[in-house]
Specification:
The complex is a heterodimer.
Chain A (H helix, E strand, L loop, with lengths): L2 E5 L3 E2 L5 E8 L9 E7 L6 E7 L4 E3 L7 E6 L4 E6 L8 E8 L9 E4 L3 E5 L2
Chain B lengths: L8 E4 L5 E6 L10 E6 L6 E4 L13 E6 L2 E6 L8 E9 L4 E4 L3 E5 L1
Parallel strand pairs in B: 1-9
Antiparallel strand pairs in B: 2-6, 3-4, 3-7, 5-6, 7-8, 7-9
The chains are: A mainly beta, B mainly beta.
Chain lengths: 123, 110
Amino acid sequence: QVQLQESGPGLVKPSQTLSLTCRVSGGSINSGNYYWSWIRQPAGKGLEWIGHIYSSGSAKYNPSLKSRVTILVDTSKTQFSLKLSSVTAADTAIYYCARNSDSSGYRPHFDYWGRGTLVTVSS
Amino acid sequence: QSVLTQPPSASGAPGQRVTIPCSGSSSNIGSNYVYWYQQVPGTAPKLLVYKSDQRPSGVPDRFSGSKSGTSASLAISGLRSEDEADYYCAAWDDSLIGPVFGGGTKLTVL
């Protein structure tokens, strides 16, 4: 059974960089055609796709966040990470990591999710 | 403002059938599959329907999805108290070049 677990600081100051890691267990990031994704949800609001990465290191980002986002993968550690720079209060949200099992990565087929981690942007 | 439009709330009595609509455009629902997620408050979303009308293993057949043109819907029959949750539709958007979600519909079981 695949499990994903987010980790990282719960509080980030405005203008700084948010950094989160997602550890994958019960399966390898390298095996299969999966896209490892980040999705966020502000309190009481809907879901927003941030981006995804393939095991090869090829990443794709939400155009609205592209200038501030970097997603990296470390296959040896079976984890992938998210960096979001120049954060503001608008970036306060629950951040989820998820596995997209669509072979093309072009369909939102998120079949495994982490439990989510709340990140608050505040001074 | 979400790219896909859902009503903020829906309700039904136990045992009844309820339908949750999701409206989009030619660049998303009109040309791509629709996915549905169920999110119980305080937990991560769960995949409920994929490729517009397919159910992952373990999802009861009380849940069914359909799509027509630029709209889609999720139907839940034999409503149960444990169905009370938020429901989100999602689809790839060819213009935005990424997946987009609806704003979510909060289902209340009366």
